[in-house]
Amino acid sequence: LEGSRTGVFVGQWLSDFEGRLFADPEGVDFHMTTGSGRYATSGRVSYALGLRGPSLTIDTACSSSLAAVHLAVRSLRAGESTLALAGGVNVILQPHVTIAYSQSRMMAPDGRCKFGDASADGYVRSEGAAMVVLKRLDRALADGDRVYAVIRGSAINNDGRSSGSMGTPSRIGQEELLRAAYADAAVAPSRVGYVEAHGTGTSRGDPVEIGALGVVLAEGRSPDRRALIGSVKTNIGHTEGAAGVAGLIKA
Prior knowledge:
Elements: E1 6-12, H1 16-21, H2 30-35, H3 38-49, E2 55-58, H4 64-78, E3 83-90, H5 96-103, E4 128-134, H6 137-142, H7 171-185, E5 194-196, H8 205-217, E6 228-230, H9 233-236, H10 243-250
Parallel strand pairs: 1-2, 1-3, 5-6
Antiparallel strand pairs: 3-4
Helix pairs in contact: 4-10, 7-8
């Protein structure tokens, strides 16, 4: 791979390691500043492997790693990357976020994610790191690669102010995103048989997401054709910056 136009796209929300290092200003040195922040994550991979394609660390909170995959796909389509490493990472080394979320009653008291269940009462923070290797399908087939899955399309958007609160998801925004993704993939929503959801197990987020899926996936669907919905967070918790790629790998 060295010298190739391989892109590195990393989703990362937390930078707890940097926070730990910088806790003592008198102990800070130059190497800490170049190796600990989010900005360095993708660059360190590109440097270690000698890769010369795009190198981005993306922070869009819990969607970071899927935003990374989206940008990697676009880079491959545009020809600026011949290969792409896309994924995310999450390491929890400081208590601040957990404390704030607990005070807001966003965390599941029993430490279990119960997505889509009437007893859903919060999400569970967890850690992880994962990457997928992406290549244009025609090139992968020509190179004799083992193809595990095909990303037919993707989309990205923002709710704007449609939810009434910056931290609350919007049905309108999610419905628009789903339609855009299926249009990009040239796949009719009625053909979709399974959706790996964001699925955090919160009483506010789950109804919005399931409601949006119900509206969009029902379009043109026969009553006897079901669409199943799941969330890897019920198994491993919410890996936040790495959550999207964890769900992608599960699917």
